[in-house]
Recover the amino acids of this structure.
């Protein structure tokens, strides 16, 4: 088997070429602040993937925190007000 794998259908799974993996890791390097700010082009793929997972977890915690804060705010205002309607629409997104 060559070191370059081509995209192919085998048993329902899709294979990604090494070049595509490299491209995806480069894109992650640009998206994840921790990598972009500290290791723009030096971080190995394993570090990029680990930092990406950490970043996604932190975003999930932030979303949960903001949702909780919006819910608490909604409890303190008139349920029929325009503000309450806006908060409900934000919570349903």
């Amino acid at each position: 088997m060559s070191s370059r794998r081509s995209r192919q259908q085998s048993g329902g799974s899709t294979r990604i070429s090494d070049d595509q993996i490299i491209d995806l890791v480069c894109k992650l390097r640009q998206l994840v602040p921790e990598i972009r700010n500290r290791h723009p082009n030096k971080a190995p793929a394993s570090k990029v993937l680990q930092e990406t997972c950490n970043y996604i977890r932190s975003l999930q915690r932030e979303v949960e925190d903001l949702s909780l804060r919006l819910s608490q705010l909604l409890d303190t205002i008139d349920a029929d007000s325009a503000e309450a309607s806006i908060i409900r629409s934000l919570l349903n997104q």
